[in-house]
Amino acid sequence: MNTLSNVWNHPKTSITGLLIATVTVAATLSQQGVNLGHAGTGTVIMLISAIATTLLGLLAKDPGQLQSSAASPVNATTKLGAWALTALLLQLPYLGGCSGTTVAQDIVNWTPALQSAVATVDTTAALLAPVDAPIFIAATAGFDVASNLLVTQAKAYLANPTAGVLALIQNQIVTFQQQVNASLLQTAKIVDPASQKHALSAVQAVATVVTAMLALVQSVSTKAAVAQMAGQSTIKLAKVEPFLDPSQSAQLVSAHYGEPLPVARVQVEQLLHNQILAGF
Questions:
Q1: Cβ distance 91 to 48 under 8 Å?
Q2: Which end of the chain has a smaller Cβ tally under 10 Å, C or N?
Q3: What is the number of other CB atoms lying within 10 angstroms of the CB of residue 68?
Q4: What would the pLDDT profile of 110-146 be if each residue is shown by its tens digit?
Q5: Terminal alpha carbon distance of the chain
Q6: Which residues of 123-156 are buried (b: 16+ CB within 10 A; e: fewer)?
Q7: Integer Cα distance of 163 and 221 in angstroms
Q8: What is the DSSP letter of 248?
């Protein structure tokens, strides 16, 4: 009875949960090759996912909140985009037909967070025990160069989303991901608990952004390209996952997209699951 009462008293939350579940199930079915037939140039599964995504976007227009933010249409637009993008990312990398320009903009939108995370890494060594600082500095060497190159390529892809530029960013995102994964393994060897906590937290912020950008790149890549990228990934996510804090990643994603933390948690979990299934 309590469950039914909650559904009745909180219809928007219940419908949102149902739609997110629909998108997640559709992504799993698509990954397993189940398409329920074709609809136009796509499949029935893709159509169902698209409808669920659209409805999530409409639900983002909360009448009560819109009244309090009538003077700020940007806020309403942000909420709309956040819900829609959440549904999109829950399906990656199995949803085809994404706009290259849209994804390129999403990648570029992540670059300030990437630069901020790398800047934090640069200052973290000062917080560590003297014996641990050199280990951390060596483990994160090259982050600045790798992030600057990725930011430059992301902006180039936004300006010119061609196959050639995409190939460059595909290679660089995997290269950077491997650097981050190696750094996580090295950082985890720090013995001092306080130093290890600071070090892992700093590296994970970079890892979260790189994973999000990797998923976006996958969404506009062919299956062959994704397979090639996965083949270049020698340090798999499954190996570094024990050193990751899902709550920290969810908080970063939630803040970036302006979405509820529970939604971000589902998003992060699904993205990691999809990455591992894809061979990363």
A1: no
A2: N
A3: 10
A4: 999 999 999 999 999 999 999 999 999 999 999 999 9
A5: 43
A6: ebbeebeeebbebbeebbeebeebbeebbebbeb
A7: 9
A8: H
